[in-house]
Write a structure and sequence with these properties.
Layout: H1 2-41, H2 46-56, E1 59-64, H3 67-77, H4 82-90, E2 94-100, E3 103-109, E4 115-122
Antiparallel strand pairs: 1-2, 2-3, 3-4
Helix pairs in contact: 3-4
Length: 127
């Protein structure tokens, strides 16, 4: 009887920890997603995005202005999200990658330098 109670207690604790981690990860992703969606709604230029991120201390990780440099940038910083980031970046003239907390923001711009899309990649291992 005691063994069963201990097993149920441990299972409950593991379940609670798992749900907590899942909720934190979901909130983390949505926070970054919301931030970039709001930025996209204003259609800022590349210069405006760079200045805003510079002002808040968000670091530029790299730039891509052609297919080869996009591939190198994505391979270096997109982790497990490489396929999605490549797909989004391919259809845009310019991509910039920024280190934002525990995420990498890939901001995609058209040929005139207007933000048209974004992609996110986690900087955490295993995400």
């Amino acid at each position: 009887m005691f063994g069963l109670a201990a097993l149920i207690t441990v299972a409950g604790m593991v379940g609670a920890l798992y749900l907590g981690a899942w909720a934190f990860e979901t909130r983390r992703q949505l926070t970054h997603q919301r931030r970039l969606a709001e930025m996209l709604a204003h259609a800022p230029t590349l210069d405006q995005v760079e200045q805003a991120f510079r002002n808040e201390g968000t670091l530029l990780l790299g730039a891509a202005d052609d297919a080869a440099s996009l591939r190198a940038l994505v391979e270096r910083h997109a982790g497990e999200q490489q396929v999605g980031v490549m797909a989004a970046g391919r259809s845009h003239a310019h991509t910039r990658a920024y280190a934002a907390s525990d995420m990498v923001y890939f901001i995609h711009f058209d040929a005139r330098g207007v933000m048209r899309a974004f992609s996110l990649a986690s900087r955490r291992r295993g995400d």
